[in-house]
């Protein structure tokens, strides 16, 4: 069985399993997504990408070397990016709504002297805090919540970034591979989104336009984390930060405007991040040897387009640099 066939079977399997679980959960609560009874269904659905990878690793040995499942020292050094960037995005939204007069956060009152923390479960407490104490409070709480939420994030990210990202980049090239992954990531949530999850005021627009754009942009950040560390764990931590601290801070914004203002503001900020990390990936990413073998090894049956994209990406590898050195040596000797 070729890598391409394995990837197709994997995608079909996790989509079917997740959609069945999502639809069953929606039916169990009769469409009321605020009902806590839907939570077990969604938790199990979140782990379908990881369970799919584990099954592949158990029954198809070649996959074991292709999955970036191990943690390493570099993954730990990238942890601050994973927590702070989603946190900055949410405070960026708070700042934009306050500056534009669209609304304000019900959790904070800001002043030159410090911040009055009015609500929220903060590890260093509430009340009036100096700026240094407030920043420590944010960093400590964001880190703790992100680590807890990382458990659920790993259920998705072992599949998305740990396995599937490499296969899609191998097939489509760097940029198109990340875009395809972002689209798959979004449409994997399709039943919930159409039921009003995340975009209750505009479920169809959210499911078919806003969410795909958002997750494609976010995928470039996740790809940067994964490819720089050779591990899916930073992406899992960033996913946890997005689901916990970013989601909580964003929900604190109180406004009388339509939800579309919130959706588009978030999309704008995440899109800016996506462009930044696309540039970093394009210009500065170096693919270590294991990542090169797992992500860019030439598959059987690759078409001409895939081969061209792969050839371009190989210019970053040690193999290409070695060939260039050999060529220069021959030229000098002649």
Give short descriptive properties of this protein:
334 residues; disordered C terminus; three-stranded antiparallel beta sheet; single chain
Helix content range of the residues, please?
A: over 70%
- What is the rounded Rg? 22 Å
Mean pLDDT: 87
**Element order: H for helix, E for strand:** HHHHHEEEEHHHHHEHHHH
Uncertain runs are: 287-334
- Alpha-beta classification: mainly alpha
Please give the largest β-sheet: 3 strands, antiparallel
- Counting structural domains, the number is 1
What global shape is seen? globular
Q: How much beta, percentage-wise?
A: 5-15%
So how many helices?
Answer: 14
Tell me how many strands there are.
Answer: 5
User: What's the N-to-C terminus distance?
Assistant: 47 Å
Across the major sheet, the strand order is 2-3-4
What can you tell me about this protein's structure?
This protein has one domain. The strands form two sheets. It has a three-stranded antiparallel sheet with strand order 2-3-4. It has a two-stranded antiparallel sheet with strand order 1-5. Helix content is 72%, strand content 5%. The model is unreliable at 287-334 (pLDDT under 50). The chain has 334 residues and is mostly helical. It is built from 14 helices and five strands.
């Amino acid at each position: 069985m070729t890598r391409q066939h394995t990837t197709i079977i994997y995608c079909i399997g996790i989509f079917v399993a997740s959609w069945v679980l999502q639809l069953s959960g929606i039916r169990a609560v009769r469409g009321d997504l605020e009902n806590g009874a839907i939570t077990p269904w969604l938790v199990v659905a979140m782990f379908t990408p990881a369970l799919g990878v584990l099954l592949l690793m158990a029954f198809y040995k070649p996959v074991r070397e292709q999955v970036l499942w191990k943690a390493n020292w570099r993954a730990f050094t990238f942890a601050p990016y994973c927590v702070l960037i989603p946190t900055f995005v949410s405070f960026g939204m708070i700042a934009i709504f306050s500056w534009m007069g669209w609304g304000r956060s019900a959790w904070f009152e800001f002043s030159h002297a410090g911040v009055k923390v009015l609500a929220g479960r903060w590890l260093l407490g509430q009340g009036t805090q100096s700026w240094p104490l407030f920043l420590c409070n944010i960093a400590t709480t964001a880190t703790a919540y992100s680590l807890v939420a990382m458990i659920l994030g790993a259920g998705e990210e072992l599949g998305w970034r740990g396995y599937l990202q490499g296969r899609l980049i191998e097939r489509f090239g760097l940029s198109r591979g990340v875009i395809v992954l972002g689209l798959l990531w979004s449409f994997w949530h399709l039943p919930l989104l159409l039921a009003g999850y995340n975009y209750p005021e505009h479920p169809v627009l959210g499911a078919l336009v806003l969410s795909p754009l958002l997750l494609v942009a976010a995928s470039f950040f996740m790809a940067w984390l994964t490819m720089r560390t050779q591990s899916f764990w930073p992406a899992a931590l960033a996913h946890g930060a997005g689901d916990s601290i970013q989601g909580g801070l964003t929900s604190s914004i109180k406004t009388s405007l339509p939800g579309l203002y919130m959706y588009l503001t978030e999309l704008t900020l995440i899109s800016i991040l996506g462009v930044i990390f696309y540039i970093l990936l394009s210009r500065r990413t170096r693919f270590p040897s294991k990542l090169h073998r797992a992500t860019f090894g030439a598959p059987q049956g690759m078409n001409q387009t895939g081969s061209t994209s792969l050839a371009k990406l190989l210019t970053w590898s040690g193999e290409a640099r070695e060939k260039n050195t050999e060529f220069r040596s021959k030229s000098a000797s002649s």
